[in-house]
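Retry 2 of 3 after timeout on previous attempt. Resubmitting structure tokens to design endpoint.
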């Protein structure tokens, strides 16, 4: 036992810096946020422990319910569309074509654009007075009056979703294209010899080989989309009339704008179980793949 002690000591010494960073930047803010969610803390007031009062208030709050549905709608809808379009674009980009490298670079370009710049660009595109999209639909005769893409409650959430799809689609395409190029060509050749057509080969050979990559990509994108604060905050700020809030922007609205830090923290703490489940599923699948 004594001979192994230096090995354990060395291991702990090597892990100490990472553990210190984790405690300072992840563990402490998380614990502090959870404690704040159980208090009536506000800006300039330390607050007192109020138990589950904040959560009771939230679950009876129409804005919280709508924001939760908006988060679910955007996450499921945006990720599903990115999945389908990502598969289609990856298959197309894997085919021989002129200037394929340039085309791939242009397809991947939105992923390199910072979220802040992407949000501001789409805000300009959607502007009902000077935006290029409003000009196009008017010029093509599709509408006879300016379209209020961001201030119309009926289409505001769809406009946000389109911007999210544009910004996140290259990630799906890159992941799926990498998976496609790693599939042994012999598998498709053997299926073709057996008489399988292109569509049948895709569903019988290609998709099963990409299953792990698809799962990991969808899980990661779901977490990122659910937490896509910047796009909603820049495009609509949760408006009009708080109709396009998602849970992260609602937490900002309650915690910062309205100075109810406890209520804002409770919004975020309420979704921790969802993220725990997603992270556990993702980690188990990745560890299983490595094994």
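Retry 2 succeeded. Sequence:
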């Amino acid at each position: 036992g004594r001979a192994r002690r230096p090995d354990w000591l060395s291991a702990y010494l090597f892990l100490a810096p990472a553990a210190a960073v984790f405690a300072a930047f992840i563990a402490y803010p998380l614990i502090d946020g959870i404690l704040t969610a159980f208090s009536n803390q506000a800006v300039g007031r330390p607050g007192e422990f109020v138990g589950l009062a904040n959560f009771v208030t939230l679950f009876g709050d129409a804005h919280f319910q709508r924001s939760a549905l908006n988060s679910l709608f955007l996450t499921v809808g945006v990720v599903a569309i990115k999945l389908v379009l990502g598969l289609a674009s990856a298959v197309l980009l894997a085919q021989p074509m002129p200037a394929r490298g340039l085309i791939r670079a242009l397809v991947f370009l939105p992923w390199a654009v910072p979220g802040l710049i992407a949000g501001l660009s789409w805000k300009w595109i959607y502007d009902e007075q000077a935006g290029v999209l409003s000009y196009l639909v008017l010029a093509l005769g599709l509408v006879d009056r300016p379209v209020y893409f961001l201030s119309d409650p009926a289409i505001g959430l769809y406009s946000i979703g389109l911007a999210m799809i544009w910004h996140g689609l290259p990630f799906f395409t890159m992941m799926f294209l990498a998976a496609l190029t790693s599939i042994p060509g012999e598998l498709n050749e053997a299926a073709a010899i057996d008489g399988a057509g292109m569509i049948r080969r895709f569903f019988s050979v290609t998709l099963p080989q990409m299953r792990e990559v698809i799962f990991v990509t969808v899980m990661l994108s779901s977490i990122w989309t659910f937490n896509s604060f910047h796009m909603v905050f820049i495009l609509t700020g949760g408006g009009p009339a708080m109709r396009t809030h998602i849970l992260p922007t609602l937490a900002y609205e309650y915690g910062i704008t309205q100075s109810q830090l406890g209520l804002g923290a409770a919004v975020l703490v309420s979704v921790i179980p969802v993220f725990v489940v997603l992270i556990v599923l993702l980690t188990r699948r990745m560890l299983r793949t490595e094994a």
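Attempt log closed. Residues 210 and 267 are 36 Å apart (CA to CA).
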